[in-house]
Design goal:
The protein is about 40% helix and about 30% strand. The protein has about 190 residues and is α+β, with helices and mostly antiparallel strands. The chain has one domain. The protein has a 3-stranded antiparallel β-sheet with strand order 1-2-5. Strands 3-4-6 form a 3-stranded mixed β-sheet, covered by helices on one side. The longest helix is centred in the last third of the chain and has 25 residues, at about 150-175.
Length: about 190
């Protein structure tokens, strides 16, 4: 008896979910479109070099240099928020960001590093010195990528093509002919 009640409740809940999904208004969902935009990324690999030079504070110390070369994976994506998408009739307007968002991650290739030798009295390069040098290297890499018009244009074209294709495909499944317009962010 309890088993039958559980099965009946499950059937009712499933019916409610299926009926509510059928009653949607057959239009472009800005949330779905935002998820599509998250997929429209370009990945590239960057080699960065972090350098720290530490001068000596007394005559018995040596000038020290720390150098590290490391690989990073970079994802370029144009993040489009739901409020940047409007649907009026058969026209979908997307306000397009002025530059991509970059996400860095350490590549699995490892890194190569070099420390210059100490003298009689140590002149240590600390972990915070190394971290600051790495942060500077990442900042320089980010600036170089954003100044690289070719890769930014490729990411923009790919994102626009994927958005347009998605909206047109959605329109064909619900027998609507959507027109996609892109406007630059102010």
């Amino acid at each position: 008896m309890m088993k039958n009640r559980c099965m009946i409740m499950a059937a009712i809940v499933l019916s409610m979910f299926s009926l509510s999904s059928c009653s949607s208004d057959n239009s472009v969902s800005t949330v779905q479109l935002q998820k599509v935009c998250e997929l429209a990324t370009i990945q590239t690999e960057v080699t960065a070099v972090a350098v720290t030079e530490k001068g000596k504070s007394n005559i018995l110390q040596a000038n020290r240099t720390y150098w590290e070369e490391f690989e990073m994976n970079v994802d370029l994506a144009y993040e489009i928020e739901p409020e940047d998408i409007t649907v009026k009739g058969n026209t979908v307007t997307v306000i397009f960001p002025s530059q991509p968002t970059l996400k860095f991650s350490q590549a699995d290739t490892g890194s190569k590093s070099y420390y210059s030798k100490n003298s009689i009295i140590k002149n240590n390069i600390t972990m915070s010195d190394r971290d600051a040098a790495k942060a500077d290297a990442v900042e320089k890499a980010e600036k170089e990528i954003l100044e690289n018009e070719t890769i930014c244009e490729m990411a923009e074209e790919r994102t626009k093509a994927i958005i347009t294709s998605y909206i047109e495909s959605l329109g064909s499944t619900i027998n609507k002919n959507y027109k996609v317009e892109f406007k630059d962010e102010d």
